[in-house]
Amino acid sequence: xxxxxxxxxxxxxxxxxxxxxxxxxxxxxxxxxxxxxxxxxxxxxxxxxxxxxxxxxxxxxxxxxxxxxxxxxxxxxxxxxxxxxxxxxxxxxxxxxxxxxxxxxxxxxxxxxxxxxxxxxxxxxxxxxxxxxxxxxxxxxxxxxxxxxxxxxxxxxxxxxxxxxxxxxxxxxxxxxxxxxxxxxxxxxxxxxxxxxxxxxxxxxxxxxxxxxxxxxxxxxxxxxxxxxxxxxxxxxxxxxxxxxxxxxxxxxxxxxxxxxxxxxxxxxxxxxxxxxxxxxxxxxxxxxxxxxxxxxxxxxxxxxxxxxxxxxxxxxxxxxxxxxxxxxxxxxxxxxxxxxxxxxxxxxxxxxxxxxxxxxxxxxxxxxxxxxxxxxxxxxxxxxxxxxxxxxxxxxxxxxxxxxxxxxxxxxxxxxxxxxxxxxxxxxxxxxxxxxxxxxxxxxxxxxxxxxxxxxxxxxxxxxxxxxxxxxxxxxxxxxxxxxxxxxxxxxxxxxxxxxxxxxxxxxxxxxxxxxxxxxxxxxxxxxxxxxxxxxxxxxxxxxxxxxxxxxxxxxxxxxxxxxxxxxxxxxxxxxxxxxxxxxxxxxxxxxxxxxxxxxxxxxxxxxxxxxxxxxxxxxxxxxxxxxxxxxxxxxxxxxxxxxxxxxxxxxx
Length: 654
Ligand code: SF4
Ligand code: SF4
Known about the structure:
Layout: H1 3-33, H2 44-56, H3 65-93, H4 106-133, H5 143-170, H6 181-189, H7 194-220, H8 225-234, H9 269-277, H10 283-287, H11 289-292, H12 299-318, H13 326-329, H14 333-337, H15 344-348, H16 355-369, H17 375-387, E1 408-409, E2 419-422, H18 425-429, H19 431-446, E3 451-453, H20 463-468, H21 471-488, E4 492-495, H22 498-507, E5 516-519, H23 520-530, E6 541-544, H24 548-552, H25 558-567, E7 569-571, H26 599-608, E8 614-617, H27 620-633, E9 638-641, H28 642-650
Parallel strand pairs: 1-3, 2-3, 2-4, 4-5, 6-7, 6-8, 8-9
């Protein structure tokens, strides 16, 4: 074929492929534009860093080295091979055309050969993982489509190698052949002769057509993450994982009032982009305590269900049609209520999908628009609103845990203390959790700190109501508490409860409350470091359970371990630190019936496997849940808050 004829042929296939791609991409763009606004601008430096680490560096994927490397080989390969696409387009028109400068660099073609091999290694390994190893995380994924994508990738690099080899065999390579060990070796297998010229044309065109076929298939397949993942990471959250986006009830235009996600048009554009970015890798599902204990919820299937709904209804909604309810159409009620908001899915997801926000938005709609929620949780919501605590106890009893301790109860107008101890509802009212409040207060007083509590003026932070989806109740609690804290002149607040820690520290800022909030383990570790408290050491074997809202949502991992190592011999569980496993109480599950196997028992079995005699915790909910779990599983361990263990060690044992 002459150069002119080749150019015309290329123009035709480029126009067809480009047109099909653009048509589909435009439809998807218009669907995402249907989404409600959410601000993901700003913090450009952080976003650039996320792209560098999570996309280019494949940080999250490499948390699992084997499968991570498989994906990284394929991804890095494509980054390196990008210029070869332009070279192939030029070469398809005329065998003598290539990119100026780069098309003559031996080092670049060495890289091309190396990465072609790595991509092939990656593809073969991915097939072996999917077909032979068959990890359960792929359960429910579209494996057929993934196989086709892998096959296309293998064909792209194979045709590239064959094209380069035929160029070398013909002697028309524009770079020194010695730099291409693989292509060079293949070229020696190719016989000379006129068929070689034909084969060179066949290989370059096969390469170009496979790439264009891949381009067209991608946006029509459920694996379009190749095009969207980088964008989704860019627009990912830059603030703490534990913070939920507040709803704006004061919005002037009533049509703009958003009460969670009822249909797809209520979703934000980021949530829509999330669904288009899912790779179906199942890392979220693998880490999910609900899925691990046989419940209906899989965060992967949730995202896939929402994406299916987008594909099904998006075009008709754009044409003026009505959208149907997401629950139970796209996801079932059970799926929505199974979540403990532990954030394991969000942390594991390599493409920055924000599952917890999706789930809470679905709950918000069910609770605030349809009044539809597990009946047992309704009592909790009512008690938070009426009694300012989820157990419906009298506020007058709030400070009775401190009877006999010399803890100042702040009255309006009193001078502010150095440290305000925010006790939280659990440690105020539950007998097991109260032990930790007593130990914490005793230790802070012993260290000579000026510490005070709010007593009956303290009210539920609203965390369980918010995670349940009742944003009204949460915001009412938040506004009341911010006013109380501001009046008290609180600047440094210590909390025992990681949920209070998260809510006051990360979420009250949206309601005008700005405070330095520390967890009691952080403050106690600080006092030990400063020598204001002295731990005598010990040899009891202690395994520490990380609370999701402390470790994963807020990165507090070192302080509790510092204390444990000062009073005993620490033993780590298999899942620890930011990759901890939930106790089962988050997301308001403290007040819901659990279906399927118990999450707390699963965690207790893991703790017992360490051989430790004590299970240390740093959260009143974990204390209650794991204490119950120990009893139900017959594990024979003692569950105690780190503060209780420290106080005992200072007193020379129980
Ligand atoms: S937050 Fe936890 S429970 Fe909820 S979907 Fe994610 S991993 Fe599962
Ligand atoms: S949501 Fe994220 S972690 Fe889960 S399957 Fe999709 S890409 Fe993988």
